[in-house]
Specification:
It contains 12 helices and 8 strands. It is an alpha/beta fold. The longest helix has 27 residues. The radius of gyration is 18 Å and the shape is globular.
Length: 285
């Protein structure tokens, strides 16, 4: 029986995921594989490096820093989340990412990004946590319209959530029979058509597959939600999602708001922990 963690993105809604993961780490919940999308990748990597508390700590510290996330950064660099500061200075200078522990941990870690030329998801294993691996994490979290296209290992990439927001199907295809899915939207949420589509068509006119993907993203996302529910009923998937609505901006700059989202994740994790342990001990269907 192989177990996985499937982590949805959602910008700073990912603080909910960080709270969930910290409680799982503190209670010695282990998995064989993690597959993260966007914020699910950049915060989820701390599970493999065994660093509870790190994601909320550095996000609260730097959320109002213009080098980290700001319109100023976007105008200056083309990235709302400053690439050099977020992926080079923070993890290797200000709040050290434990690369050695990450590399030694046998848990497999995948980040999902979107190939802008094909519109297809790319599932890339990130084994070492080095600078190239963090570039893949950046690609996974590079939101359209406010990020540069990331070029790495011959690919041109943007946010993985554009093409596969909840990669549960991929996890099952990879042979994982017990899947823990962490969502960042409340039960009953349905994604609506993108109001920014006219701007997307203009900005990405050289990349028609990206325009197509974004035009249909709401359909893909809602279909994936339905698939999650189906797999949950089959007994091979355990779903964790916010128990109540907690408003937080995708680029939230208020540390108190981030703390509330994180605290909700911790609260929900403690609540579901007994059921999660039973799920992991039960026989796979």
């Amino acid at each position: 029986m192989k177990t996985s963690l499937v982590l949805e993105g959602g910008g700073m809604r990912g603080m909910y995921t960080a709270g969930i993961l910290d409680v799982l780490m503190e209670n010695s919940i282990n998995v064989d594989m993690i597959i993260g999308v966007s914020a699910g990748a950049v915060f989820g990597c701390n599970f493999k490096s065994k660093q509870p508390g790190r994601a909320i700590r550095y996000n609260k510290r730097f959320c109002a820093d213009s080098r980290y996330s700001s319109f100023r950064s976007f105008i200056k660099t083309g990235d709302w989340f400053g690439a050099d500061f977020c992926y080079k200075e923070v993890p290797f200078k200000y709040d050290i990412f434990d690369v050695e522990t990450y590399k030694k941990n046998p848990v497999k870690f995948y980040a999902v990004a979107t190939d802008v030329l094909t519109g297809k998801p790319v599932y890339h294993e990130i084994p070492d946590g080095n600078e190239n691996d963090l570039t893949w994490m950046r690609a996974s979290a590079s939101m359209p319209l406010v990020s540069n296209i990331v070029e790495v290992d011959g690919y041109k990439l943007l946010d993985g959530g554009m093409s596969d927001s909840i990669p549960l199907k991929k996890s099952i295809e990879m042979g994982y029979t017990k899947n823990i899915v962490v969502l960042t939207q409340v039960e009953g949420y349905q994604k609506k058509p993108n109001k920014m589509l006219p701007l997307i068509k203009m900005i990405y006119r050289k990349y028609p597959k990206i325009v197509e993907v974004m035009a249909n993203r709401h359909k893909m996302y809602n279909e994936e939600l339905s698939y999650v529910v189906e797999q949950q009923k089959m007994g091979n998937t355990f779903v964790i999602r916010p128990s109540r609505l907690q408003k937080v901006g995708r680029t939230e700059h208020n540390p108190e708001v981030l703390q509330k989202m994180y605290d909700l994740g911790r609260e929900d994790a403690v609540t579901i922990l007994p059921d999660l342990k039973k799920f992991l001990k039960s026989e796979a269907n």
